[in-house]
C-alpha cells in the first residue's frame, strides 16, 4: 500500500478525516478492510491519537467505518457519491452558528419540555427513555452520542403534542445535528463533561416522567445554558 504522508502537528481532525475519507473513496481501504490502530495512524500521519480518534469518530458517524471492541476499525462502504454527500452534510459549523442555534433552542425547548411533562403518554416516555439508554451506551463506548442526543430532544418535542413545535424541530434538524456533532467534539475534550451532559438529560427525563412541568422546563434550560457557557469558556 502507498505510504501515507505525515501531517503537520497543527492539522486538525477534520483534515485527517478528509484524508482518510479520500483513502476510502480511492479504494486504498476496501470495504471489510481493517484499518491501522490509533497508534499506528497517529505515528504515520504525525498527529496525536486524540486527533485520530476524533477523525475516526466522524467517519463512524457517517457510516463509513465500524469499530468492533477488541478487533479494531473496519471500512463498511466507499461508494464515492454516497460518501461525499454524507461528508458534506457534516461539514464543521462555526462557533457563532452554534451559539445562535443554542439561543433558539433555549427559547423553544424549555417550553417544549414543560408541555411534554404535562402531556406525554407512556409510549412517548418510553421513546425518550430509549434515546437516553442509547446515549448511555454511546458514553460507555467512548462515542460522541450526537445521534441519540438528537433523538432525545426530538422525542421530547413529540411528547409535547404540538405539531408546530415538532415541525420547528424538524426544520432545524440538519443545523441541530451538525451543531450537536461539532459542540460535542469540543466539549468532550474536557474530562467529566460527557458524564455531566448525560446526567443533565437524565434530569430532564426524570422531570417529564414525574410530570413536573416546572422542573422539566428548568432542567432543559439549565442543560442548554450549561452547554452555552461551556462553549464560551
From TrEMBL:
InterPro entries: GntR_C, TF_FadR/GntR_C, Tscrpt_reg_HTH_GntR, WH-like_DNA-bd_sf, WH_DNA-bd_sf
Keyword terms of this UniProt record: Coiled coil, DNA-binding, Transcription, Transcription regulation
Gene Ontology molecular function terms on file: DNA binding; DNA-binding transcription factor activity
Coiled-coil region: 114-141
SUPFAM superfamilies: GntR ligand-binding domain-like, Winged helix' DNA-binding domain
CDD domains with a match to the protein in the record: WHTH_GntR
Any single Pfam family the record assigns to this protein: GntR
Boundaries of every HTH gntR-type domain copy: 10-78
Name of the protein described by the UniProt record: GntR family transcriptional regulator
Organism per entry: Aneurinibacillus danicus
